[in-house]
Design brief:
Number of helices of chain A: 14
Chains: A mainly alpha (299), B alpha/beta (408), C mainly alpha (307)
Number of strands of chain A: 0
CATH class of chain A: Mainly Alpha
Distance between the termini of chain B: 72 Å
Number of domains of chain B: 2
Distance between the termini of chain A: 21 Å
CATH architecture of the largest domain in chain B: 3-Layer(aba) Sandwich
Strand content of chain A: under 5%
CATH superfamily of the largest domain in chain B: Periplasmic binding protein-like II
CATH class of the largest domain in chain B: Alpha Beta
Number of domains of chain A: 1
Strand content of chain B: 5-15%
CATH topology of the largest domain in chain B: D-Maltodextrin-Binding Protein, domain 2
Largest sheet of chain A: none
Oligomer: heterotrimer
Helix content of chain A: over 70%
Number of strands of chain B: 13
Amino acid sequence: MASSQPARKKRAAAAQLALLPMAITVLGVYIGTVLWSVRISFSSSKIFPKNDFVGFSQYERLFATERWTVSLHNIAIFGVLFILACMVLGFFLAVFLDQHVRGENVLRTIFLYPYAMSFVATGLVWQWMLNPGLGIQAAVRNLGFPEFQFDWIVNQDKVIYTLVVAAVWQASGLVMAVLLAGLRGIDESLWNAARIDGVPRWRYYLSVVLPQLGPAFGTSFVLLAVGVVKVYDVVVAMTLGGPGNASEVPAKFIMDNLFTRANVGLASAASTVMLLTVLALLVPWWYARSVQSRKLGHS
Amino acid sequence: MQFTLKQLALAATLAVSFSAQAQKANVIHWWTSGGESAAVKELADAYTKAGGTWVDEAVAGADNARAAAINRIAGGNPPTAAQFNTSKQYHDVIAEGQLNDIDAVASKEGWDKWMPKPIVDAIKVKGHYYAVPVNIHNPAWFWYSKDALKKAGVASEPKTMDEFFAALDKLKAAGLVPLALGGQSWQEWITFYSVLLYVGGPDAYLKFFKDHDAASVNSEGMRKTLTALKKLHNYVDAGSPGRNWNDATAMVISGKAGFQIMGDWAKGEFGAAKQTAGKEYGCFAGFGPKAPYMVAGDVFVFPKTTNKAAIEAQHKLATVFTSPTAQVAFNNKKGSIPVRTDVDSSKMDICAQAGVQAMKDTSRQIANPDALMTPDMVGAVQDVITKFWNGNQSVDDAVKALQGAVKG
Amino acid sequence: MSAVVERITPPVAAPVQRKAARRKSHFTPARLGLYALLVSSAAFFLLPLYVMLVTSLKPMEEIRLGQLFALPLNATFEPWVQAWSLACTGLECRGIQVGFWNSVWIVVPSTIASIFFGALNGYALSFWRVRGAGWLFGVLMFGAFVPYQVMIYPLVRTLATVNLFGTLGGIVLIHTVFGMPVMTLLFRNYYAGVPIELFKAARIDGGGFWRIFFQLMLPMSLPIIAVAVIMQVTNIWNDFLLGLVFAGRDNLPMTVQLNNVINTTTGERLYNVNMAATMLTSALPLAVYLISGRWFLRGITAGAVKG
């Protein structure tokens, strides 16, 4: 055992070298730019960043802006519904595709293609389809159901749900792909053993497969969460934040203030608030992970 | 000293290549649709004819183009010229000292003498000229389908706001969509300031946009405007929210809707549908022969550089852009009107000709809101208006919100 | 080391046998129900594509009528030709083909680099003890949530100082950096599901850091590499803002032309050309999805634990 001690240290040096780009990226790019943007949120920057100091006035203005508070409210509703729907739909699609179906390649591509397409065009198509005068409501009424109503997109209370529908359409394919990759890593012999024991297929999935998919679910959750925080394209393509400000989201608020309204200071303040919120949700998770990994002996 | 033919030819080639390179102009703009492309080609051709080289850097979407220009300036690789609107959008860039002035061109061409005042106010800052205007767009035109109006029994163009409302009623009764509107914040914004200008009057308009006078917001002019706006909402169809402006114009083109309030770029859509002004569709910019004519449009700014060749290119661009031939050629294709009034307007469509006539009366010229308010304040007012338009807010509450927005 | 590799070579013969055995009971009610569910899901996913296709084959007069789901009366391929080679994108009217190779030159190195670093990071984080690596990873995850628009200005200034602003190398570096959080997460979580006995066995067999990475882990990661390729190709191929700002005039990706075709402030909008252009642009990522199918194999790690 003693002779392997210097060998382990050498190997760790290789690992340190390998992680150097990541360290540089994290410290230089991410921490650096986040700190910079927090600094700018305390300035009166308009179109170019400025180095003055105006205290918390940008934050005061931020929370007095109704458009911002509406966007926070919207992102919470959107986030919960979107993540839930994508995980459930993605999981079921992955399970169905795992059943040795014919045309698996074609089906998988059908579920994934929305992810490939630019939301500028597909979002417009969704806008048309959900428009009461043009899309599904008009078509169903023409088929002979004159009382059919599906005008969520022009309704200020329901427009956020239309965004969820279009976003789930676009993203659940990716969740399916991640979960399918995870499913394909599970040993088939486990199913054979379960079948011999008389365990039904669905029970097998519930008690054997699901626990093993933990990391894949974790990956999907983070991907979806990042998508929620950054959601922008679907809003711009479908509703432009409307009607009124009903479907405003934080990323759009930040973009508009950064470029159109030449208000870099306010945009930085909004971005800082978003990051603080993410931090508040991440810290307990980090803590739980570090406790768990110390128990398992992983790093 | 005698030069051989070869030496002369070599010298000539060098001279040509030097001068061609010397006036290379990287131009960022957002004219990317078919009609806009044909228009910008006129400017590029005119510049090439004058001895320059045009390097096109088109970026669709005004916000994208401006963001690209700003980032290029920040990255130390600025374009030779960048497009902005006749507005305050680039005034911060001037304040940061990042734009070259073109006083040399302005004095040589005598801009002070003939350029319309609203434009001069937007491009002249602290006595220096920083931008060259290329056209005049008016965002506050009324467009109507002759077919739809005939079907509804509307005999003639409305000459007052009351007649306009009466026409809208007739259209509603005939089962058509009276007012085609795209429920996007910027279109509701156009509707608001058009109604403010034509109903509230130029004084209320200027008090609000130019003076940012919070007290004036509670005046009769503004209250009348807000009430009219609320009334106007009843004439818009249920599918309006989120609709693109072209889709609203399409409703007028197909005769499904009667009116649209939109800028004169709408002619591009009518033209693409092979309709002619005065035949299938009509146009008017405000009510009556003395109606105020809004001056908006596009300008080019010149990012700061000390490179002599680049400065030459910038000056050449400014001269070419405002030359009479380039102005006529460009604006004919663009659907806007020239910034010079001393040009031949006979080849323009009847709407543009009406615009040129209106511009000749300097008392009718009035600046667009973007030239009077910073983009930040414009945004704040837009938020108030879109909430008022899409909700059940009372006029009193809207007045209070507007006052908050202009206090800045 | 090689013994371990032998152990996990996929048992190719087995799936074929299983399929033959299944064919007997193919049409049970459960099976039919499964296909029904898959087909109806496919219908939901395909509906917008149908509208896009149909719109792209109609002339503008038909589109203005607003009959969204109707088949074209006068179908025409003109919009597709226009989108590829004739649509105006500024002064030029040469369609979106102009940027095709630029996009390829940007996507290929960026994808390879970001996946390589993601796999390397995930591998190092999962199996090796490096001080502070856990914290670094945590902050990297946090970095994934930062809105990249806010990061543009400082990155512009930084790249300008090292003369990489407006170059191909600059945009590849930007994409690698922005892809690192998600790629690292993908591989780290995948390797977390790999039994540590495999790794320990390889170490005992004498494998070092790099050897284990290249000869054991990477070959075993094909399914997750497939997912990573799908994600990176899609994200980088469809990226617009970063390419516009950082790539420089000579390397502008296809998405800039696509934006110039589709987007317009006050110009006329040709929806049929827009739809055709979008579908053309998405052809490459779709091709990648179809090809990556062969990597979603079962059984890569199957049998490894037993052996």
